[in-house]
Design a protein that fits this description.
The strands form 7 sheets. This protein has an 8-stranded mixed barrel with strand order 28-29-31-32-33-34-35-36, surrounded by 5 helices. The protein is an alpha+beta fold. The longest helix is centred in the N-terminal third of the chain and has 84 residues.
C-alpha cells in the first residue's frame, strides 16, 4: 500500500475517534439539557394548573356572590316600584308611606347606601337619605337610557360621584305609568366599600388583585384599591362586549398599566349582567415555588455537565498528541501535492516488467479519473488520449526511451485538453531500463493564450481601423497596416517618433490638454479629431486613446485606435446640403430660407434698412406638365432656377419653397425703384422662351412683394404677406407684380373668417334656395325656374353668392353644398306639385368640382328617388369652363343624366373659351346667353350680332335658347324679335324665396307695359 495513502487513512481514523468522543459527549449533554427542560416545563405546568383551578373556583364564587347581590337589589327595586304604584295619590301622607317603603328596602339590603325616585323630568321626589334641597338628575346616563329605551331592564353604572361627592355604583330601573308611558326612574346606590370588604377577605397573594369590571373594560372596583383608575377603560382588560371570541369564562396574561405587574388573569362574566369578575395572580408569586425547584435541578445538571466536559477534554488531549505525530509527514506530502496541483503537473512511474506502478493525485485529476490504490492499466490511460497520439506513448513504452512532447485528450470523453508529457528511463545496476518515470502537465490554457496572442497579432495587422501603440512618453513603438494606409506613413518612418507628428494644427493647445487629462483621469478618451497625412492633407478621424496600465510603472504606454471619417464627413455634408436645399434645383429650401431671412432681418434691424421678399409663381405650370409631361416641367423649373440665379446679387438669397414658387430676398434696397427693377427682371427672365424636349415653350410669372419692416418683422409674416400679394396678382390676370397692402391682409382675414363660418353653415341650416322664374316668350308664361343658393350667416347676415361660392369652390365645400342644392330643389319642386301647382322644371347650377368627383349622376338619381319627382322636371346647368377642363368626364355624365330624362343646359355661353365643337360634341337641351351680352343688346351692335348668331346657331342644332339678365322691356322685345325662346331677369322677377315663388305662380301673367 502507498505509505502516503496509509498515513492519510490513519489521519482519518484519528479524526473519526475525535468526532466519536465529541459526538458521544454531545449526545449526553443534549440528553441532560432535554431532560432538564422537560422536567422544568412539566413542573411549571403543574404549578400553573393547580393555581389556575383554585383561581377559577374563586372567581366562580365571586361571580355567584355578585349575581345574588344584584338579584336582591333588582328584586327590591321592582318590589318598591309596585308598592309605590299601589299607594293612593289622594292621602296627604302619601310621601310618608313612600319614604317608609324606601326605608324598608334599605333595611333589607344592608349593602345599599340609598334608594331614590326620579319623576319623568329627572327631579328627585323621594330618597331614603332625606337630603335637603332639590335635585334634578336628568343629565345622568341611567336616566336618559331608561327614558329613551322603554324595554331596557336594570342598568348598572359606576362608579359614579354623587352631587355630594360620594362614589357609588348605581342600579336603576324604569318606572312606567299605567298607560305604559315613562313615569320616572328608581335608583339604588351600592356602597363600593361593601364589595371592597368582601373582596379584601379573598386571599390572592401580595401581587394578586380582585376586580369588578364592566363588559366594555371599564374598571368599577379593584382590590387593592386603584382610585385614579376606577371608572376608566383599561387596556389590559379586554372589551368583553365587543372582542370576538371572548368566552363567558377564561384566562389571559397581561401587564397591568396600573402597577406594571405581570399577572395571570381569570375572569367570569356575571350571568345576565354587563359585569365581569376578575381575579389576577402575580406571575412571579404564582411561580415562586417553581423557581426554587428549577434552581436545584439546574445546579445538579451543571455539576454533571462539568464532570462530562472534564472527561471529554482528557480524551481529546490524548488524541491530539497522536495527531501531531502524523502532521509532519502529512505536511511534506501536502507540499508535493500542492506543487503539482498549482503547476497542473502529475507524476507517474511504470514498471516495464510487471506493468504496475504509481500515480500522483494530480494524475487522476488531470485525466478525470477517480483515485485508486493502484494506477489503471496502460490501456485505460491510452483511452484518455486522442487516438492519433496514442502511438507516441506506445512507442516510448515499447522501447523504454526518453521522450517529450504534447498529447491531446480524447475529445469523445469531454472538452479537449492539451498535455505536455516527459518520460525518462530508470536503469538497474547493469544499465538496463527497468522502468519509466515522468510527468504529465496540462498546458491547455497556455496553448489557448498563445493562440489568442497569434489571433491578436493577426487582428492588429489586418483590421481596417488604424492602430498605433506608444510608450509612456508618446513615442510610437508599433503601428499596423491600416495606420500606414490611412496616414501614408510607413512603419519605419514613424517608429521612435512622437505621436505629435500627426497633428493637423486645427486644434488649440487646450484641446490636447483636456484630451490627456481625460486619459489620465478615466483611462481613456474618445472623440473626433483632425490629423494630417504624409501628403499634408488634413482628415477627420474617430479616435479612441486608452492608457496601458502597469502594476510596477503606472502607465506603461498608450494605444490609439482610429477610423478615417473622410468618406462619412463628405456624406454628412451632402446630407446636410440635401436637408437644406431643394433636390431638383439645388436652391435653398424653406428651412434654409427661413434661417437666411432671419439673419437678413437681424442685420437690417441693426442697420435700420429695408428688406424685400419677392415671391414668384410660374403661371400655369400644370399646363406644361399635362401637355408635355412632368419631366418637361422639371426641366423648366431647373432652367428658371439657373436663369434667376445668374442674376442674383451678392448677399441676396434665391430659394424654391413650392412646386412652382421661388423666393428672392433682397437684403439691400434703397428705394422702391430697386425692387421694381428686380421684380420686372424676374418677370422678363421667366418670360424668355426656352426649349423643353425639343418643344419651344413660353411661360409667364406672377410676383408678390412684402417689405421689412413695413409688412412684417419675421420670416413667416413676410412670406405669408408676399403670398397674399401674389394671390391678388393671379386674380387680376397674372404676369405682373404687386406690393402687399394692409387692405390685402384685411381681405385675406375676411376670407379666412368667411371660410370658417362657411364650413359650419350647412350643419347650422343657414343655406336656403331662392327661385327666379324663366318666362316663355311665345305666351309670356312662366315655364320654369332657376334655383339659386343664398346664405344668411348668424354672425355676418346675408352673404353675397359672389363671395361665398368662389370660396366654396376653392375649399372643395362646393361638392357637399351642391349635393344639398340638388336634393333641396327636387324636394321643393315635388312639394309644389303635390300642392297642386303647375308642374315646372327647376334648373340647378353644377360646379366643375362636382363633375370632377364623377358622382353627379348618382347624386341626381338619389335625389329624384328620395323626392319622388320625375326626372323631366330637373335641369342641370354647366359652364363652358367645366366642359373644357373635364371634357371626357363631363360628356359621360351628361349622357347618363340625359338618359335618366334630366335636361342639361350650357350656362354663361360666350364668356369663356367658346368653341362650336362643344355644341356639336355634347348633347345639350338648352343654351343660356350670358347677361353681359343682353345688357347692351339694344345699344351695342356687336352684342346684338353675337346674340342673334348664338340664337341662330342653337336653333340650327335643335337647342332651346334662354337669355339671362333681361331687365327692360326693350331687351325683352329685341330678344323676342330675334327668335329667343325663353328669358329670365329682373324685368320679370328677382330671385325669391319658395313661398313667394308660389304667390308669383298664382299671378302668372305677362308683365304689363
Amino acid at each position: 500500500m502507498n505509505p502516503i495513502f496509509s498515513l492519510r487513512l490513519a489521519d482519518r481514523g484519528e479524526r473519526g475517534v475525535t468526532l466519536l468522543v465529541l459526538g458521544f459527549a454531545g449526545l449526553i449533554f443534549v440528553g441532560i439539557i432535554a431532560n432538564l427542560v422537560f422536567e422544568l416545563v412539566q413542573a411549571r405546568d403543574n404549578v400553573i394548573t393547580q393555581k389556575s383551578n383554585s383561581a377559577r373556583v374563586l372567581v366562580k364564587v365571586l361571580e355567584e356572590q355578585a349575581v345574588d347581590s344584584i338579584f336582591a337589589v333588582d328584586l327590591a327595586m321592582q318590589t318598591t316600584i309596585k308598592a309605590v304604584q299601589m299607594v293612593p295619590h289622594g292621602p296627604a301622607d302619601r310621601d310618608r308611606l313612600v319614604d317608609e317603603l324606601l326605608d324598608s328596602s334599605i333595611t333589607n339590603l344592608p349593602f345599599i347606601r340609598a334608594i331614590w325616585l326620579l319623576d319623568a323630568k329627572g327631579n328627585m321626589i323621594h330618597d331614603s337619605q332625606k337630603l335637603l334641597g332639590s335635585y334634578n338628575l336628568s343629565d345622568r346616563a341611567y336616566f336618559r337610557i331608561h327614558r329613551e329605551q322603554p324595554t331596557y331592564g336594570m342598568h348598572i353604572e359606576g362608579p359614579i360621584i354623587s352631587k355630594l361627592g360620594v362614589p357609588f355604583i348605581s342600579f336603576s330601573r324604569r318606572i312606567n305609568r299605567p298607560d305604559g308611558s315613562f313615569g320616572g326612574v328608581i335608583v339604588a346606590a351600592l356602597e363600593p366599600k361593601y364589595l371592597r370588604r368582601f373582596y379584601d377577605a379573598v386571599k390572592v397573594g401580595k401581587d394578586g388583585i380582585v376586580a369588578l369590571v364592566r363588559t366594555d373594560g371599564v374598571l368599577m372596583l379593584r382590590v387593592p384599591a386603584a382610585g385614579m383608575a376606577e371608572g376608566k377603560r383599561l387596556t389590559f382588560f379586554p372589551n368583553f362586549h365587543e372582542t370576538p371570541g371572548v368566552l363567558d369564562a377564561g384566562s389571559y396574561i397581561a401587564d397591568s398599566n396600573i402597577d406594571q405587574i405581570r399577572r395571570l388573569y381569570f375572569y367570569q362574566r356575571v350571568s345576565g349582567r354587563p359585569l365581569v369578575v376578575v381575579v389576577g395572580l402575580g406571575e412571579d408569586e404564582l411561580l415562586a415555588d417553581w423557581y426554587g425547584m428549577a434552581g436545584a435541578y439546574i445546579g445538579v445538571s451543571l455539576a454533571f455537565l462539568v464532570v462530562l466536559a472534564g472527561l471529554s477534554s482528557l480524551a481529546l488531549r490524548e488524541l491530539h498528541k497522536r495527531f501531531r505525530l502524523n502532521q509532519a509527514l502529512h505536511n511534506s506530502d501536502d507540499a508535493l501535492r500542492a506543487a503539482q496541483q498549482l503547476a497542473l503537473i502529475g507524476s507517474w512511474r511504470l514498471d516495464l516488467k510487471t506493468r504496475s506502478g504509481h500515480w500522483s493525485e494530480q494524475m487522476y485529476r488531470l485525466l478525470g479519473l477517480p483515485p485508486a490504490d493502484q494506477p489503471p492499466p496502460l490501456d485505460v490511460f491510452l483511452q484518455q488520449i486522442h487516438p492519433h497520439d496514442r502511438h507516441l506513448v506506445e512507442s516510448a513504452v515499447q522501447h523504454g526511451m526518453n521522450w517529450a512532447g504534447e498529447l491531446r485528450s480524447n475529445p469523445a470523453l469531454g472538452p479537449q485538453r492539451t498535455f505536455h508529457s516527459r518520460s525518462t528511463g530508470v536503469h538497474d545496476a547493469a544499465g538496463n531500463v527497468i522502468a519509466l518515470m515522468g510527468t504529465l502537465q496540462d498546458v491547455t490554457e497556455r496553448r489557448q493564450s498563445n493562440e489568442k496572442l497569434e489571433l491578436a497579432a493577426r487582428v492588429f495587422e489586418y483590421t481596417r481601423d488604424g492602430i498605433v501603440v506608444t510608450d509612456a512618453a508618446s513615442n510610437i513603438v508599433a503601428v499596423n497596416a491600416a495606420f500606414e494606409r490611412i496616414t501614408q506613413y510607413s512603419e519605419s518612418e514613424v517608429l521612435g517618433r512622437n505621436i505629435r507628428m500627426l497633428r493637423s494644427n486645427l486644434h488649440d493647445i487646450d484641446f490636447y490638454r483636456q484630451l490627456w487629462e481625460t486619459v489620465a483621469r478615466d483611462g481613456h478618451w474618445r472623440g473626433e479629431i483632425w490629423n494630417r497625412r504624409k501628403n499634408g492633407e488634413v482628415f477627420p478621424e474617430w479616435l479612441t486613446v486608452s492608457a496601458v496600465a502597469s502594476a510596477q510603472h503606472g502607465t506603461a504606454g498608450y494605444v490609439g485606435v482610429f477610423t478615417d471619417l473622410s468618406d462619412i464627413t463628405e456624406a454628412n455634408e451632402q446630407l446636410q446640403f440635401m436637408v437644406n436645399h431643394d433636390p431638383l434645383t439645388r436652391l435653398p429650401n424653406r428651412s434654409l430660407l427661413n434661417d437666411r431671412l432671419e439673419q437678413a432681418i437681424e442685420a437690417a434691424h441693426q442697420a435700420q434698412r429695408a428688406i424685400a421678399v419677392l415671391l414668384l409663381n410660374i403661371d400655369r405650370l400644370q399646363r406644361v406638365n399635362d401637355s408635355i409631361g412632368h419631366d418637361a416641367g422639371d426641366l423648366l423649373l431647373r432652367e428658371m432656377a439657373q436663369r434667376l440665379l445668374a442674376r442674383l446679387h451678392p448677399g441676396d438669397t434665391l430659394a424654391r419653397i413650392g412646386s412652382d414658387e421661388f423666393v428672392l430676398v433682397l437684403s439691400r434696397v434703397d428705394d422702391n425703384d430697386d425692387i421694381n427693377a428686380a421684380a420686372q427682371q424676374m418677370l422678363d427672365t421667366v418670360a424668355a422662351p426656352c426649349q423643353l424636349l425639343g418643344i419651344d415653350v413660353v411661360v409667364t410669372a406672377s410676383v408678390g412683394i412684402a417689405l421689412f419692416p413695413l409688412d412684417g418683422v419675421n420670416p413667416g409674416d413676410l412670406i405669408r404677406n408676399a403670398d397674399t400679394a401674389l394671390s391678388h396678382v393671379k386674380n387680376s390676370g397674372r404676369n405682373s407684380f404687386r406690393y402687399f397692402t394692409s387692405e390685402m391682409n384685411t381681405r385675406a382675414l375676411h376670407w379666412m373668417a368667411l371660410e370658417h363660418r362657411l364650413r359650419s353653415a350647412l350643419g347650422r341650416s343657414e343655406f336656403s334656395l331662392f327661385y327666379q322664374p324663366q318666362v316663355r316668350l311665345a305666351d309670356m308664361r312662366v315655364c320654369g325656374a332657376e334655383a339659386l343658393i343664398r346664405w344668411r350667416s348668424a354672425e355676418l347676415g346675408m352673404v353675397s353668392p359672389a363671395e361665398f361660392i368662389p370660396l366654396a369652390e376653392d375649399s372643395g365645400l362646393i361638392v357637399e353644398i351642391g349635393e344639398w342644392v340638388i336634393r333641396t330643389a327636387c324636394a321643393q319642386n315635388k312639394a309644389w306639385q303635390d300642392a297642386g301647382l303647375c308642374a315646372l322644371p327647376v334648373a340647378v347650377n353644377v360646379s366643375a368640382h362636382q363633375i370632377t368627383a364623377g358622382t353627379l349622376p348618382a347624386i341626381v338619381s338619389s335625389a329624384l328617388r328620395a323626392s319622388g319627382m320625375q326626372a323631366r322636371y330637373l335641369a342641370i346647368e354647366l359652364t363652358e369652363s367645366v366642359l373644357m377642363q373635364e371634357a371626357e368626364l363631363a360628356m359621360a355624365q351628361i349622357a347618363e343624366l340625359r338618359g335618366m330624362g334630366v335636361a342639361v343646359a350650357l350656362d354663361d355661353f360666350g364668356t369663356g373659351y367658346s368653341s362650336l365643337s362643344y355644341l356639336s360634341r355634347f348633347a345639350l337641351d338648352k343654351l343660356k346667353i350670358d347677361q353681359s351680352f343682353v345688357r347692351n343688346i339694344t345699344e351695342d351692335a356687336k352684342s346684338a350680332a353675337i346674340a342673334k348668331a348664338t340664337i341662330a346657331l342653337a336653333h340650327g342644332l335643335g337647342i332651346t335658347v334662354v337669355a339671362e339678365g333681361v331687365e327692360t322691356r326693350a331687351q325683352r322685345d329685341y330678344l323676342d324679335g330675334a327668335g329667343c325662346d325663353e328669358v329670365q331677369g329682373y324685368f320679370f322677377s328677382r330671385p325669391v324665396a319658395a313661398d313667394e315663388f308660389v304667390a308669383l305662380l298664382a299671378t302668372d301673367t305677362a308683365p304689363s307695359d
